[in-house]
Amino acid sequence: MFNLRKQFLLDPSITFLNHGSFGATPRPVFEEYQRWQRELERQPVEFLGRRFAGLMAKSRAALGAYLGAPADDLVYTQNVTIAVNIVARSLELGSGDEVLATDHEYGAMDRTWRFFAKERGFRYVNRHIELPITSEEKFVEDFWRGVTERTRVVFISHITSPTAIVLPIREIVRRAREAGVLTVVDGAHAPGQLPMRLDALEADFYCGNLHKWLCAPKGAGFLYARPDVQQLLKPLVVSWGYESESPSGSRFIDHHEWCGTRDAAAFLSVPAAIQFQEDNRWDEVREACHALVAYAQKRICELTGIAPLHPQTDAWFRQMASAPLPADTNPLRLKNQLYDDQRIEIPVSEWNGKKLLRISVQGYNSKRDLDRLLRALSTLLKTATAQ
Question: Do residues 22 and 218 lie in contact, with contact meaning Cβ atoms separated by under 8 Å?
Fold first, then answer.
């Protein structure tokens, strides 16, 4: 597909169908990443002491244009986990308050909210979402019935991690705003898979990864905060940006951008990742990837006789999809058999009592990769049982 396999550094002996976990960085972007690391080492004092703020501002400007948000409403973080921790630590929640989420949230984020709930006495509520999802309207109504007079925050994934479903968050955000409820969106899988207009979405806080589907280097993520809620955020690490001696004009940037000595190369390489996708007609790449995912999911569901988790329309999934497996499947055994015997890297997990295989397709994949997976599953599903 578009002959992009040679543009990536992936081991050619592995059929890599797990882009969703940590991403993969194209050669030109990785070379830019290393160039920035060498630039830092040439004159560390000049780089960090004189150039850092300007370089970061330029990179944030490129990211803001890509995400549809003002650059000064964004700060770089290493990943979504850190961004969510900034928000969760900052919000003044206590006894009697509730944070409402789905039961499809990423495990590290559930742990973050449960940690602070235990510390401060608020409730973290995972609203059960009935599967298969049948319509946007039913999902929204089912989720919104979890909102009570105690709900202070809605935390929701744009694209879920375990089930790979694109959730209709726009209506949830709209209702929350009308109800005076803060919204925190986990966008770990959205940038690079979905068109982004954060200013139009109007979520209060949006946390995103750039090392996944945008293909930036590892350690590139961001936190977006609407201007009217930025004052709620406290620095996760208190450093020179607090009580800044040379303020930038944005307390949000000052408090969260500088965390002491750290390698900013991943952040500074984000414009190169954006440019790489522009140069390689990424809208077409995404559509080709989506077609491969749809093909694989359909074939796996035919193989198992189990219906998919959502309607087979474009709105519910993009370059990633989860296919349910038979109840007697041993996920660890199947995962190990796929990797050890077939050299196929793909996650197989147990989630909420369901056995799931999650397919991720990126521009380096081809139909041959998916057919290889399907051939392996046709044999291994007969033997990878729980016994």
Answer: yes
Tell me the mean pLDDT in the region 176-203. Answer: 97
pLDDT in tens, 105-145: 999 999 999 999 999 999 999 999 999 999 999 999 999 99
Per-residue pLDDT, 385: 67
In whole angstroms, what is the distance from residue 348 CA to residue 386 CA?
13
Query: What structural domains does the chain harbor?
Result: 29-276 (3.40.640.10), 282-380 (3.90.1150.170)
Mean residue pLDDT of the chain comes to 96
